[in-house]
Amino acid sequence: MPKLQAELVRLKQAHLYRSRRISDSATGVCVHIDGQKRLSFCSNDYLGLANHPVVVKAMQAGAARWGVGSGASHLVNGHTSAHHALEEELAAFTGRPRALLFSTGYMANMGVIAALCGRGDYVFEDRLNHASLLDGGLLSQARMQRFAHADASALAEKLTKQDNSEKLVVTDGVFSMDGDIAPLPALAATSKQHNAWLMVDDAHGFGVLGKNGGGCVEQFALGIDDVPILIGTLGKAFGTFGAFVAGSEELIEYLIQKARPYIYTTALPAAVAEASRASLTLLQTEHWRREKLQALIKQFRRGAAELGLELMASETPIQPLLIGDNHKAMSMRQKLQQQGILISAIRPPTVPDGTARLRVTFSAEHTEDNVNHLLAALEQSL
């Protein structure tokens, strides 16, 4: 088809073409990609639990008991005691009455927003929200308005104009491409003032932030009255797969009845639920993982400053190195790859035009030597 071919050519010429790499190893710090061993700084396995022997053993035991597939949706006969136990444990972990599992974070975000809002309602979203949150707003057919990034005053201005409508405020907790944290206390206060729900997707905060890994809401000491709708994913710091929403009894029951991506999708395998239960225990008890992660982040930021590299403001494992030009970002990625370093180059439309970057992410499995190796490679790639 000429139209498709022309667009593919355009993407390549603009250095926006995306290509898959084939991995022959388990998730970890050292990976085998396209037949070569490389040191990886582009995984969301922040706590190093994806290949943890306890988590692997739990999944193997779960598969031995439950089989590989769940066989049906949760509302038919795919909801096992493993799923139910994980939901109860996630509810306790988040300090909320109930939690509900979804098969992916994308489905959770789209399902929750579209279930809660419809024609005549308003959805207010941070301008830099994840694509799944934005798509959820569009799917809902509500009137969606985007406010300036991390700006509670800008949100208040928009909310003031719609005080008599049903309103949902939606934000990431940790922004996946910038690594910064949403000003949740200010957003919560603003939402309350204007009688709006606040929904926070803390996909990149759970496990990483807070004394016990409870994420942004724990770090800011916010409760269910502040953040009534809390979304989390299991495929990042948890190291497994799937997602959940935590909230009130009424919210969860409503979503069971109304969230189409929950109702009409096969439940994630029970073995994955068992693995997630094991990772949840490790996440809460092995505090050294978060402490080590923070030490590595500080080491990297100090070294990057000494090299004159332009890092974005972030205290999380997501440390974006701002490049700007698409071609230069791809060139640096290639030079790093030649030195055995694997890092993703993030370009538009994932990020705004002119803000292409190398997205460096850290894991508790990295070492100080790994960070020094990365800094030396970056210096050579400038």
Defining traits:
382 residues, alpha/beta, Aspartate Aminotransferase, domain 1, Aspartate Aminotransferase, domain 2, seven-stranded mixed beta sheet, three-stranded mixed beta sheet, 13 strands
Any overview of this molecule?
By secondary structure, the protein is α/β, with parallel strands linked by helices. It has two domains: 21-47 and 287-381, Aspartate Aminotransferase, domain 1, CATH 3.90.1150.10; 53-285, Type I PLP-dependent aspartate aminotransferase-like (Major domain) (Aspartate Aminotransferase, domain 2), CATH 3.40.640.10. The chain is 44% helix and 16% strand. It is built from 15 helices and 13 strands. A seven-stranded mixed beta sheet has the order 3-9-8-7-6-4-5, with helices on both faces. Helix 2 runs antiparallel to helix 12 (270-285) and helix 14 (326-338) packs across helix 15 (368-381). It is globular.
The total beta strand count reads 13
CATH architecture of the largest domain: 3-Layer(aba) Sandwich
What is the CATH fold-level name of the largest domain? Answer: Aspartate Aminotransferase, domain 2
H and E order: HEEHHHEHEHEHEHEHEEHHHHEHEEEH
Anisotropy-based shape: globular
